[in-house]
Each structure stands twice: as C-alpha cells, then as structure tokens.
Amino acid sequence: MTDNDRRELWAPASGEPEHPLARLDGAEVGQGVTLEVELGPAHRVGARYFRAFLRSDELGRTVLPVVAGLANQGPYPGHNWVEVTDFEDHLPLEDGREVAVPEAIDLRIIGQLAELVPPGGHFMAEYDSPSRSSTARALAARVPPAATPLGAMLFAVSCGVAFKDWYISEGGREGPRKLQGFRALDEAHEQARGPEMLAALDAFMARSKELDWDLQAKTRPLAEAAITVLRARLGLAEGPLA
C-alpha cells in the first residue's frame, strides 16, 4: 500500500456528521487549542479507527496525531467502547518546532473521548508508550489503578467504577499493555463497586511508604483524591489517611 493509499483511508470526521466522533471535531481542549478528528476504516470487529490532531490558534496544527484508536457502537452497553491505542505527549509542528502536551490538555482529550462511552460501556487506553511510563511503573508496583496517572484520569471522567489491567505478568502478554476503565451502569452499580475500590485504596495508603519516593509523590495524592470522592459518594465520614 502506498502513502497515497494510506492517506485516502482517512477523512475529516465532519464529513460524517452522524458518527459520534464527529462531535469531537473542533472540540476545545485548551486555550485556543482544538481537536481535528479524522475517521479511518472499519476494524474487523466493526469498530471504527480514528485519530485526532491538535490545532492551536497560535502554533498551527501538529504533524502527527496526539491520539489514535478505535471506537465501537452496539445495541448493548458493553458493545459501546473507546480504545486509545496511541498517545503522544511531544508532537512536531509544521514549522519544525516541537510542542509538549500539558497534562490539562491530556485530561480534556480523555474527557472528550469519554463522552462517547454510555452507562455500562468502557474506555481502554494503552500505557506502553513512553508518555505513560509512570502508570506502567505504578501498576507494576501494585498501585491501585485509580491512583495511577492514567487510571486517575479515567476515574475523573466517570470511566473508573472498576478497572481491568490488560497485562499478563506471568511471562505472557496479549498485545500492548492497556488499562480498561468501566462507566457505571447506574447509581446502584456505582454504590456496589465503591466499597471494594475504597478498601483497595485505603490498603495502598497504608503500604505506600514502601514505594520509591518519586512514585509515592505521583500516586499518593491521586489515591487521596479518589478516597475523598468515594467517601463522599458512599456517604462515609472522613477519616485519617495512612
């Protein structure tokens, strides 16, 4: 397949206004920074490939997409999902300069994509890329997903009622490592899963002093924030953190 053939597989999402991803085209993710979303071919399972570039009023458009992945729709909640297969936090511009993607823009991109996930759906995101190395280290150290940088973002955009880590530690791997966060089916689902996550985070706080200092600095504040949210959600009184 030639480069021209590859380019022809992608088209602006605005050209398919009925597709949910078209709503993200032009979405603001920073001061004067918007997304330019393109749709690609269908995956063999029926999901649609997508990629999104950043456009800045001041700096222009990035040469490479900031995020790429798959989005799927279906009649049942579990059939509706988004998967981020690639994320880049340093991107070249058309004038040869390079820009770093701030965490605030990263979170807003995740938030925009999460709007495509209905109750009962899920959001998967890779953590194999260099930009997600802190999450990879934290998960390897048995930090609860909600207290990792990527997991905390999924939790913040309501795609973290529960998590699944797609990594087989006993010597095997099934594709790139990715974290799967679920959106609650309803309030009862949220209330039912909350105590389990809260217990895991409380246990983590009690043993987190065993981690390297830099990992503590990244994960303890995220755990504290998640604990505060969960206690409020469950109507529990605040208590001392370990």
Beta content: 15-25%
* Tally of DSSP β-strands: 12
Q: How helical, in percent, are the residues?
A: 25-40%
Instruction: Characterize the largest beta sheet: strand count, sense, and whether it forms a barrel.
Output: 10 strands, mixed
Radius of gyration: 19 Å
Q: Averaging pLDDT over every residue, what do you get?
A: 92
Give the distance, in angstroms, between the N- and C-terminal Cα atoms.
57 Å
Tally of contiguous helical segments: 6
Order of helices and strands: HEEEEEEEEEHEHHEEHH
**What overall geometry do the principal axes of the alpha carbons give?**
globular
Helix/strand-derived category reads alpha+beta
Uncertain spans, ≥5 residues at pLDDT below 50?
1-6
